[in-house]
TrEMBL record:
<comment type="function">
    <text>Also displays a weak uracil phosphoribosyltransferase activity which is not physiologically significant.</text>
</comment>
<keyword id="KW-0804">Transcription</keyword>
<feature type="domain" description="Phosphoribosyltransferase">
    <location>
        <begin position="25"/>
        <end position="163"/>
    </location>
</feature>
<comment type="similarity">
    <text>Belongs to the purine/pyrimidine phosphoribosyltransferase family. PyrR subfamily.</text>
</comment>
<comment type="function">
    <text>Regulates the transcription of the pyrimidine nucleotide (pyr) operon in response to exogenous pyrimidines.</text>
</comment>
<dbReference type="InterPro" id="IPR029057">
    <property type="entry name" value="PRTase-like"/>
</dbReference>
<dbReference type="GO" id="GO:0006355">
    <property type="term" value="P:regulation of DNA-templated transcription"/>
</dbReference>
<dbReference type="GO" id="GO:0004845">
    <property type="term" value="F:uracil phosphoribosyltransferase activity"/>
</dbReference>
<dbReference type="InterPro" id="IPR000836">
    <property type="entry name" value="PRTase_dom"/>
</dbReference>
<feature type="short sequence motif" description="PRPP-binding">
    <location>
        <begin position="114"/>
        <end position="126"/>
    </location>
</feature>
<keyword id="KW-0328">Glycosyltransferase</keyword>
<dbReference type="InterPro" id="IPR050137">
    <property type="entry name" value="PyrR_bifunctional"/>
</dbReference>
<keyword id="KW-0808">Transferase</keyword>
<feature type="compositionally biased region" description="Basic and acidic residues">
    <location>
        <begin position="180"/>
        <end position="194"/>
    </location>
</feature>
<dbReference type="InterPro" id="IPR023050">
    <property type="entry name" value="PyrR"/>
</dbReference>
<protein>
    <recommendedName>
        <fullName>Bifunctional protein PyrR</fullName>
        <ecNumber>2.4.2.9</ecNumber>
    </recommendedName>
</protein>
<feature type="region of interest" description="Disordered">
    <location>
        <begin position="180"/>
        <end position="220"/>
    </location>
</feature>
Amino acid sequence: MSVPEHAEQTPGSTTSRVILSTSDIDRALSRIAHEILESNKGSEDLVLLGIARRGFPLAQRLAARLEQIDPGFTARTATGQLDITMYRDDLRRHPARTPQPTVIPDSGIDGRTVVLVDDVLFSGRTIRAALDALVDVGRPRVVRLAVLVDRGHRELPIRADHVGKNLPTSSQEKVRVLLRESDPEPRDEGHEDCVVIDAPVASDPDVARDRDAAPGRTAR
């Protein structure tokens, strides 16, 4: 598989373009790691929980960076995975989802600062489900949210504390995060990890209006 570096028409009448390359993602994660330490005033009582499935490898990468920055943080014992399958509000419409294991550090999350990690923040419903799942495994002192991409279009009052990139999109566009851990198919050099936008070709007035009405874009 090869990810196009520039806009390119595909058979499905969409254009695909890379928004973040491997190096861009690395820089974004390094910045988020510093922000987490600053907001927490260090690494004490800090736990990272990645939302299955792409949130978990991102949490692992963030934990590795935190360990490099602050020797008092141990990535292996402060990183876990949170599965939200049974807490989703669309489970009746999509019942075939395969649950992933929820893995909580041995020290638990009670009284600790938990940073939920996910790849894309969109409607906010995934994070709402994650908060419900979190209640069933413990009572953190503080819960914060770190996402690689915030694409807007919120349906619930949820905001990320740490964002790799704010990405104004239209509702017609699709944002894909491709990571080596979860998406191992071959990609071009420099795009082993990447964020891609798939946008429909503006072949009719409705698509064009929706595209131009996206936040941060000026209608023509």
